[in-house]
Amino acid sequence: AKEVGVDGIIVPDLPLYEYEDLYKDDFINSGLSNIFLVTPQTSEDRIRKIDELSNGFIYLVSSSATTGSNLDVSDNISSYYTRVKNMNLKNPLIIGFGISDKTSFKRANAYANGAIVGSAFVKTIANKEDYLSHIPEFIKGIKG
To answer: The pTM is what?
Structure first.
């Protein structure tokens, strides 16, 4: 995977103990990061364990909704972002789910070290023969 430019892998349902016992050495030896997901319901102990096992970044899921939904910045979710940010973890925090435009990108970056744009990017390039030509404009629209 590393040979073709892959830096990390997200395996959403991989239990921490299984990663630690069976896969951690393989990830380290291949130079790949295993990206763990943290949700608003994740306990502080589990977040700290994820931080200990991570070597890339921690993916903060913005809500319990599916990907492609709007970024939630309600008081409840804002307190979740702040709670995790104030834990002073060693790994950067990146927010994903609902990042689709400049506004949601800026909101996410107010709480984290970055944002993941997934569904909006796929929609931009989907079913277009010249999809590469749409990418610079998409990025400019997100970053401003």
So the answer is: 0.85
Total number of residues shown for the chain: 144
Specify whether the CB–CB gap between 47 and 38 falls below 8 A: yes
Q: Is the model's pLDDT at 65 over the cut of 60?
A: no
Alpha carbon distance, N-terminus to C-terminus of the chain: 32
Contact 125, 74 (CB under 8 A): no
Give the DSSP letter of residue 22: I
Q: Which of 47, 24, 139 is nearest to 61 (CA)?
A: 47
Distant-in-sequence, close-in-space partners of 131: CB < 8 Å, separation ≥ 6 = 124, 125
Cβ neighbours for 79, distance < 8 A, ≥ 6 positions apart: none
Q: What's the confidence (pLDDT) of residue 45?
A: 98
Angle, helices 102-111/131-143, rounded to nearest 10 degrees: 60
| Extents of the domains making up the chain | 36-118
pLDDT in tens, 19-41: 999 999 999 999 999 999 999 99
Say how far apart CA 134 and CA 122 lie, in whole Å.
11
64 contacts 39 by C-beta, under 8 angstroms? yes
